[in-house]
Amino acid sequence: MTTKPLLEVEGLKKYFPVKKGMLGRTVGHVKAVDDVSFYVNEGETLGIVGESGCGKSTTGRMLMRLLEPTEGKVVFDGKDLTSLTSDEMRKTRRDIQMVFQDPYASLNPRHTIEKILEEPLIVHGIDNPKERKKKVREFLEIVGLSAYHAKRYPHQFSGGQRQRIGIARALMTNPKLIIADEPVSALDVSIQSQVLNLMQDLQKEFNLTYIFIAHDLGVVRHISDRVGVMYLGRMVEMAASEQLYAKPLHPYTQALLSAVPVPDPDYQKEQILLAGDIPNPANPPSGCTFHTRCPHKMDICTKFAPQLVEQDSGHSVACHLYSDQVDNDIKQMEGSL
Amino acid sequence: MDERKTVLQVKDLQTTFFTDSGEIPAVDHIDFHLKEGEVLGIVGESGCGKSVTSLSIMGLVPKPPGKVVGGEILFEDKDLLTMTETQMRHIRGNDIAMIFQEPMTSLNPLFSIGNQMTEAVLIHVKSLSKKKAAARAIEMLKLVGLPRAEEMMRDYPHQLSGGMRQRVMIAMALVCDPKVLIADEPTTALDVTIQAQILKLMRDLNTRLNTAVLLITHDLGVVAETCERVIVMYAGQIIEEASVKMIFEDPQHPYTKGLIQSVPDMRYKKERLYSIPGNVPKPGSVLQGCRFATRCEFAFDRCLKENPELYETSDAHRTRCFLYDGEGVGMHDNKALAGSRGIEEIFPG
Predict the structure, then answer these.
(1) pLDDT over 90 (residue A243)
(2) Which of A164, A234, A330, B317 is least crowded, fewest Cβ atoms below 10 Å from its Cβ?
(3) Do the Cβ atoms of A231 and A33 come closer than 8 Å?
């Protein structure tokens, strides 16, 4: 595996304005994604986990510029995507494809599967009609369906089959990177494992790089090489998946992992129950956004937001508990005041 | 032996939906019981009939097209199916209460929490004054761990978060001290950290109030953490029933085994997930033979022709599979069946 990052994200932000009153004046911002940086190496799977409203889907959409970032850089294959014109961006999307959560909503009900799968090829001007039709049938077989399914409509398929079609559509243009946003969360357990296995097989076959966005920690561990944990628009911890699950550093990650019900009645675990709910992202707490629910809250946490700093090799965490960081953070903040 | 009294007994229940494309037996001859203070889980994938079972108990099956066509549902020895709508209304809430997956759609957005809570109290205890009803409502809100309960009485559903709404639903369900609480996917719409709070609350309330809980879920993790006993459903039938410990230690039905193996485990990484081939059958599409036969690794001729009954394989463990038919092929031992491949190959890990 090469270690060259295929995608590098730096200081990505998305602020949605909150408008009020008759004149629609902007009275504040929802910081959906606030200063997120990460990279993805070629051929690996980066998992992004977090609860609803943490900004994981917004991040995914910004990478493809389905949403325009407020600030930050997205460097893909040496090019900064945020500086491309929309026309250039459209061409680049040939290399970055997306698989969506809801296989019911993401396939046009009035188009046949053939038309759905052929469309990305037409958009990008790939092949002639005859070759395209051949390719559609070929990819249907690759994702575990049959060539004769090409003439059918989406409603004639089950949820799992539709997700296979969604994956086939993403593969049609022979992309390098696939962003999968909750691709299995709408599926039943027995179907979920089929789709996960398929995605792993395809990764090997086509040397794909995945960004896998999900809320299910078990699924993310299974498929990811590295995992990033998001909370209220920020990346709070990032590590190789083995490392993260064996030794979570951030109190939020610890609580999150302990909250997942384990299918084993004999398994004794120490459950860290977080009090309260996720705060409103339009009015996030000061300092570290997690301090309102954190069992290890210190004074500094309410004042300064911790930075994501590498602790062990490849294991970064944004938390004041990892103390040598605290002094730096204070200095840095005082410097900027 | 379990000395507790049975509060709810479902006997040979059949609920069928009569649609344009034919009759769909959503619940197909189901038997089970629920004891006082017990937490019983019903687990299965979409379309297996777990929700229709709970709606049948509550008398809430939408009709038409649905209809309970056979069986008995005995609550304290009275058959709910023969009751009039007025009698049923008295049972619902007073004796058997239900909470649903999506708390937002179960609460009326136009009325305050206090209004809806006191209404629930007054419907069932008509003699109570409004003031006393409100006091009871506040008491219940406190019981489910909601802070500032008095103020919350004035709040509207949209002002609460998903977790808080589900707590309100639980408070409302428990307001008349029911003997049975049916919870249909109560945490599916919630985030994991909130799910953990709600599950803990349900366990605590079960111990404190001794309310029997029928928990319907698709999540095996939730079952393992919450239930004492579990029923696995597939295509409208019970295919296995056992204590939670036995289901995970010694799952017998090939479907149960496959389901447990399919779940990615957060504690360690499996190289590859086991996956059950094929799809969940559409309700009503498999009518002959074992419902699972077409997806089963162990299926043999008999499975395609006859539907197996629930065999009692050990104390309180029932399995609907010919592998456990004492007089049948006599293959209690899975290894014999898997033959040269070995069981580990089929169910790795």
Answers:
(1) yes
(2) A330
(3) no
Checking if the pLDDT of B184 tops 70, the result is: yes
- Per-residue confidence (pLDDT) for residue B1, from 0 to 100: 54
Q: Model confidence at B191, in pLDDT bands (50, 70, 90)?
A: confident
For all residues of chain A together, what is the average pLDDT?
A: 89
Q: Which amino acid is at B141?
A: L
The pTM of this model reads 0.86
Interchain contact, A221 vs B264, CB within 8 Å: yes
Closest CB to A197 among B163, B258, B272: B272
Determine the 3-state secondary structure of B25 from DSSP.
Answer: strand
Helix, strand, coil % in chain B, rounded to nearest 5 = 40, 25, 40
CATH of the domain spanning A5-95+173-262+269-277: 3.40.50.300
* Identity of the residue numbered B230: V
In what helix (H) or strand (E) does residue A240 lie, and over which residues does it extend? strand A234-240
Query: How many of the other CB atoms lie within 10 Å of CB of A179?
Result: 28
Tell me whether A48 touches chain B (CB under 8 Å). Answer: no
Q: Does residue A337 surpass a pLDDT of 90?
A: no
Provide the 8-state DSSP code for B145: T
Instruction: Classify residue B311 by burial, with Cβ atoms within 10 Å: 0-12, 13-18, 19+.
Output: middle
Helix (H, G, I), strand (E, B) or coil at B152: helix
Contacts of A188 in chain B (CB under 8 A): 45-46, 218, 280
Distances (CA, A) of B99 to B95, B108, B118, B181, B348: 14, 14, 17, 8, 38
Q: Please state the rounded mean pLDDT for residues B208-232.
A: 93
Domain boundaries, chain A: 5-95+173-262+269-277, 109-166
Long-range CB contacts (within 8 A, 24+) of B62-68:
B64/B18, B65/B17, B65/B18, B65/B19, B66/B15, B66/B16, B66/B17, B66/B18, B66/B26, B67/B15, B67/B16, B67/B17, B67/B18, B68/B13, B68/B14, B68/B15
Given an 8 Å threshold on Cβ–Cβ distance, is A158 in contact with B279? Answer: yes
Is the CB of B266 less than 8 angstroms away from the CB of A192? no
Confidence of residue A135 (pLDDT cuts 50, 70, 90): very high
pLDDT at B2 over 80: no
Buried b (16+ CB within 10 A) or exposed e, B237-266: bbbbbbbbebbbeebbbbbbbbbbbbbbbb
